[in-house]
Write a structure and sequence with these properties.
It is a single chain. The protein has about 800 residues and is an alpha+beta fold. The strands form 3 sheets. Strands 1, 2, 3, 4, 5, 6, 7, 8, 9, 10, 11, 12 and 13 form a 13-stranded mixed beta sheet that branches. The protein has a 6-stranded mixed beta barrel with strand order 16-17-22-19-21-20. The radius of gyration is 34 Å and the shape is elongated. About 50% of the residues lie in helices and about 20% in strands. Helix 1 packs across helix 12 and helix 21 packs parallel to helix 24.
Length: about 800
């Protein structure tokens, strides 16, 4: 009977099945996404006892949080705290700029290269292909590489052990021995590397340092140790070891240092929680977000709920027709329980068909979903026996939830009443259906507001409000390899057609390489720690930085090597009322006679977002290059129509001056965008899921509109006989639904404001939720509702009244 009913009402069945199938398919894709985001770093044998030390650095009036800490903290913690079984450190040698090395005449550049302590594989779990991981990093100039790296270089991972390569070291170019090859590090890790080099290769990494941030430090605690107990001992430990260095650097006691608003708050991050909960400065990679997981899980529940509501509304929209069926069944002796079972079986049957179709839709759209989410997901996850049973159970559950109300309502009809043609919905059923429509459109309005705000925030982070021009800029990485050829290389680039500006710098926005530095105005006892950058005279022009006061560096002023340019935040924190001409010192930078080096402020640039918008703008201090200094990057501004040709010609010039290092470049706008990969992924998926949720809600509204017009067909016929116009009847049928949309908006607005405002708190700089967003979302919902119900309204309004009144 269920099968026959599906065939009898083909359009209704198709709409019902498609609505449920789309809702289920979205849920399946979201489940795959959530599954890919949880369980990070749980492949380590001791994952439950591994913690990363993180730092909240307190400055007067502000706070910065870092994933990297001073290089000597780990050793101090291991020495003083018996709860710590082992520790290990990682120093980034090359991220996406590549670590250049050569084997014979062949030149390579490997990304994600770290210097690692010999204890790395005592803390973390690696899977060796060749070599002994327990001793692989015990000696200087040794390295561990992954299988992919070994296959790329040597063609045979096992045969790579014992081979050597030449690369940069503490004293120029040195030879490194490959001591082990491991399987590729699992993707579900907050940390990824292609090569590890022993920290013993770099003597500076063993020098005492308790205030400069440089490395990721991980602790392996004893199984019985309490992380809270370890954290509680950090303040005294830091005071013990850092007091002397603070005195030498800042010229004051630790107590005075703290009283001035400074401080170090170290805490532990559970290894398995880093990916979803950590968003600190200098993270090892782009982490996910637990908020995104929660939001997508809620969207999955809402979309499935909307699909179930649609089923209820579409089923009740056919209640007039099914009422006669029920009346006849009861007249011939059917029991109410049997009729309920019949309708539930139909519902479950439709749900199972929808689940099959949902699985097919998930397979079809998974490649697109993977592209949007930057994932490599597979539906094979659902094909295990346990997961298949869960899918069947979900289909049964959805069928029961969606069908239970129509089953009980339809089975309760009085056969005498409905067979006389006097069937009419009761007030309780009407209230429930109206409530369901309000719920559907309240969710839709919330999603519309959220989608608009999320897109505005992403546009703000990637737009023109950053304070500099990021477009059409090529960044040549590892520019220090140019050596003395740097100047002539720049001159050659300026001769390339389409190149308008070239600049040397230690870094560019979107990078983590703005070094920490402390300055102090002469006559003040208030040192300011901020970020530093070394640039040439073209930097401000190339990035279109706005000068607020004074000037930028110039070749016409050789003394600029002892001058500074500050951002507005640095001026404020240094307390400079008249910054131009102010004299600044940096504790620790002294002349040969021991006197401090005195710098003069020559200019102030308008604050710009050189870091992620997750962080507030910190003080930034510009130095210009001295003769002995080499730049890390060369930034090149190119006209849009010359971009491709310019890249090729820049590469040609690089090969002319650097013969043993590969040409490595990136685009500034992409560097900036890479800071927000998690948000951009969430934006794309959120927009699509919201559109699907609104579409599903419209299906349900269409069903309810059909039901409402069926209920009032005789009334419409009488109104037309008495002279009612088509527009008047359409208005009559629409206004009841518009009242429901108004109620939905009143419920949705405060919920949307609270949820979106909470999400925006993740950003130090954010858009505001303007009143127009709510007004537009409400108007759009009204337009969608009118468009949805117009088909049935127009059909009812133009129907010949003779047809609707014939049975009277």
């Amino acid at each position: 009977m269920a099968y026959r009913n599906l065939l009898k009402r083909k359009v209704f069945s198709l709409i019902n099945i498609m609505g449920l199938a789309i809702g289920m398919a979205v849920c399946l894709l979201i489940v795959l996404f959530i599954k890919s985001e949880v369980g990070y770093d749980d492949f380590h044998k001791n994952s439950d006892n591994i913690y990363r030390i993180a730092l909240d650095r307190k400055y007067p009036g502000r706070l910065s949080s870092y994933a990297i800490i001073p290089q000597s903290i780990g050793d101090a913690v291991k020495h003083d705290l018996p709860e710590v079984k082992e520790y290990t450190r990682l120093f980034s040698i090359a991220g996406d700029t590549g670590f250049p090395f050569n084997i014979g005449e062949k030149v390579y550049a490997e990304n994600d290269v770290y210097a690692a302590d010999s204890t790395f594989f005592k803390v973390f779990t690696g899977d060796a292909i060749a070599g002994d991981l327990t001793t692989a990093l015990n000696k200087p100039n040794t390295a561990v590489i992954t299988k992919t790296t070994a296959d790329k270089i040597f063609g045979n991972a096992a045969g790579a052990v014992g081979k050597q390569f030449e690369g940069g070291g503490a004293n120029g170019k040195v030879s490194y021995l490959i001591s082990a090859v491991i399987k590729d590090w699992p993707q579900k890790s907050h940390l990824h590397f292609n090569m590890l080099i022993s920290t013993l290769s770099f003597p500076n990494l063993s020098k005492p340092n308790y205030t400069g941030f440089s490395n990721y430090t991980y602790l392996l605690l004893n199984k019985t140790a309490s992380p809270a107990s370890v954290e509680s001992k950090f303040p005294q430990l830091i005071k013990k070891y850092a007091t002397g260095e603070i005195g030498r650097t800042f010229g004051e006691t630790y107590e005075h240092f703290q009283a001035a608003g400074n401080g170090y708050h170290y805490y532990l991050q559970p290894l398995k929680a880093i990916h979803l909960t950590s968003n600190l400065e200098a993270e090892a990679g782009t982490n996910g977000s637990s908020n995104v997981i929660y939001i997508f899980a809620i969207i999955a529940v809402f979309i499935l709920g909307l699909a179930c509501i649609n089923f209820i509304n579409l089923s009740t929209s056919l209640s007039v027709e099914r009422a006669k069926e029920v009346g006849i069944r009861k007249t011939f002796g059917s029991e109410k329980g049997a009729i309920i079972i019949q309708f539930l079986i139909e519902s479950i049957f439709i749900s199972i068909l929808s689940m099959v179709l949902a699985f097919v839709l998930a397979i079809l759209f998974l490649p697109l979903f993977n592209h949007l989410a930057n994932k490599d997901l597979s539906v094979l996850y659902f094909l295990s026996p346990v997961n298949l049973l869960l899918l069947v159970a979900l289909a049964f559950g959805v069928g029961l939830v969606a069908g239970i109300y129509p089953a009980f309502i339809l089975s309760s009809f009085n056969p005498i009443t409905v067979l006389k043609g006097k069937f009419k919905s009761n007030k309780y059923g009407l209230a429930l259906r109206n409530g369901l429509v309000i719920f559907q459109f309240a969710i839709s309005i919330v999603l519309i507001i959220a989608t608009i705000t999320v897109n505005r925030q992403i546009g703000y982070m990637l737009g023109d409000s950053l304070g500099f021009n990021k477009d059409h800029v090529i960044v040549v990485n590892n520019a220090f390899n140019l050596g003395k050829n740097n100047v002539v290389f720049k001159d050659q680039l300026l001769n390339i057609s389409g190149v308008s500006d070239v600049s040397n710098a230690s870094t560019v926005p979107g990078n983590q390489n703005f070094f920490g530095i402390t300055y102090q105005a002469i006559g003040s006892n208030k040192p300011v720690t901020g970020r530093g950058i070394v640039v040439d005279e073209n930097y401000a022009k190339l990035l279109n930085l706005e000068m607020v006061k004074g000037r930028f560096f110039s070749k016409e002023f050789p003394a600029d090597t002892l001058n500074l340019v500050l951002n507005e935040k640095a001026v404020t924190e240094l307390g400079l009322t008249e910054p131009i001409g102010s004299r600044i010192i940096s504790p620790g930078q002294n002349n040969p006679d021991g006197s401090p080096v005195v710098f003069t402020v020559i200019g102030v640039v308008h604050d710009f977002h050189y870091q992620s918008l997750h962080q507030k703008i910190n003080p930034l201090i510009f130095n210009t290059f001295r003769k002995a200094q080499l730049s890390n990057v060369v930034a090149v501004r190119v006209k849009a129509d010359n971009f491709k040709a310019a890249v090729q010609q820049i590469g040609t010039q690089w090969d002319k001056y650097v013969k043993d290092k590969p040409f490595n470049y990136s685009f500034l706008d992409q560097r900036v965008a890479n800071q927000y990969l998690t948000e951009q992924t969430a934006q794309r998926l959120f927009t699509i899921f919201s559109a699907l949720a609104i579409f599903i809600a419209c299906i349900g509204l269409m069903g309810l509109a059909a039901y409402a017009t069926q209920q009032r067909m005789r009334e419409i016929g009488i109104r037309k006989v008495l002279g009612a116009s088509v527009s008047g009847i359409m208005t009559m049928l629409s206004k009841d639904f518009l009242k429901l949309i108004l109620w939905a908006a009143l419920i949705a607005f405060p919920v949307a404001w609270w949820g979106i405002n909470s999400w925006l708190q993740n950003f130090a700089y954010r858009v505001t939720i303007g009143w127009w967003v709510f007004l537009f979302s409400g108007a759009l919902s009204v337009a969608i509702a009118l468009l949805t119900i117009s088909f049935h309204a127009v059909k009812a309004a133009v129907t010949n009244p003779v047809t609707s009144l014939r049975s009277e």
